[in-house]
Predict the structure.
Amino acid sequence: MARVIVDVMLKPEILDAQGQAIARALPRLGFSGVASVRQGKRFEVELDGPVDDAALADVRKMAETLLANTVIEDYTVTVERAES
């Protein structure tokens, strides 16, 4: 079984209100030195077969169709390597 990671983030030009709220809360919780925070989503997709070009194309189509709103979000697809 193979795992593919899809990370989704708001595009840089889109205001991240949730990230700003987190950044404002950090000093109150004792954390200093944080200039900004961007909040995103991570999806772990486990595939039955090998991670070949066709499987990666399917995962990218999943991301474009359902996992990300490509008008305001960017996404990256990464194959998670098995640890030995």
